[in-house]
Amino acid sequence: MHDEDLARWQRGWSAARGWNAAQRVDDVTVVRVGEPQCRVEYVATERDAAAAAHLALTDSNPPGTSWLVIATAEPGRVARELLPLEYVRTEWLMKISLPEQALHPVPAPYAVEVTGGRSVIDVQIYGYGELAASGRMAVLHTGAVADMIQTDPAHRRRGLARAVMSTLVTTAVARNTTTAHLSASPQGRPLYTSLGWTTLTPLLVARTAAP
Q1: 95-128 burial by CB neighbour count: b if 16+ within 10 A, else e?
Q2: With 70 as the cut, is the pLDDT of residue 167 above it?
Q3: C-alpha span between 77 and 74 (Å, rounded)
Q4: Pairing of strands 38-45, 66-71
Q5: What is the rounded CA–CA span in Å between residue 91 and residue 88?
Q6: pLDDT tens for residues 100-147?
């Protein structure tokens, strides 16, 4: 059921976004996000999907602001079982041994900048006078989670996302980090697969029905 992988991803994903208020309720991880469009995230495996749905449907948040992330091999079926919750999308939980990721240089004339503290690595790639691509990796003990990998539309198809991932990985490895997780969108999954990441399980993303 990938319980430990899901837990590691959730901790790093929350840390990358600064969501530090989390607790366990009925084997569901409750992340207090506090943003207008997402007040809370309930994270669980399929085994506890019904408990997560109950929490979302009975909390006091406005409609459309309570979200679920459920690890399941059958997101379509589980989405139907969770009605009236609203299906949003399917993502994929992925993992890699960091030394095994393929590395790609920053292409000229772009330049890379690495910032952040001990527990969070931020990478920005600049070119032609503007921010072209960026990404973040939270580092927790010997594990890490990559998040928010983005390329400006004007700079796509130039290898910048690969360069962002390469810089994140080399920086994390230098901090004795050995493994990493991420949640991939349909658009991002082919990139990570080409870099050597392995898909563990689909992730169903749902929410309470918007008004």
Answers
A1: bbebeebeebebeeebebeeeeeeebbbbbbbbe
A2: yes
A3: 6
A4: parallel
A5: 10
A6: 999 999 999 999 999 998 899 999 999 999 999 999 999 998 899 999
Give the 3-state secondary structure of residue 64: coil
Cα separation, 199 vs 6, in Å, equals: 12
Q: What is the pLDDT of residue 193?
A: 98
Return the structure tokens found at 48.
Answer: 């506890």
CA 40 – CA 93 distance, rounded (Å): 20
* Number of structural domains found in the chain: 2
Instruction: Indicate if 105 and 169 belong to the same structural domain.
Output: yes
Residues 131 and 75 in one domain: no
The whole model's pTM is what? 0.96
Distance CA 174, CA 31 (A): 30
- Whole-angstrom distance, CA of residue 184 vs CA of residue 192: 8
Same-domain pairing of 125 and 102 = yes
Residue 1 has pLDDT above 70, yes or no: no
Helix segments in the chain, DSSP class H:
3-17, 49-58, 75-81, 160-174, 189-195
The answer to whether 107 and 99 are in contact (CB under 8 A) is no
Residue range 2-55, pLDDT digits in tens: 899 999 999 999 999 999 889 999 899 999 999 999 999 999 999 999 999 999
Query: Helix or strand or coil: residue 166?
Result: helix
Domain with 144, as residue range(s), is 96-200
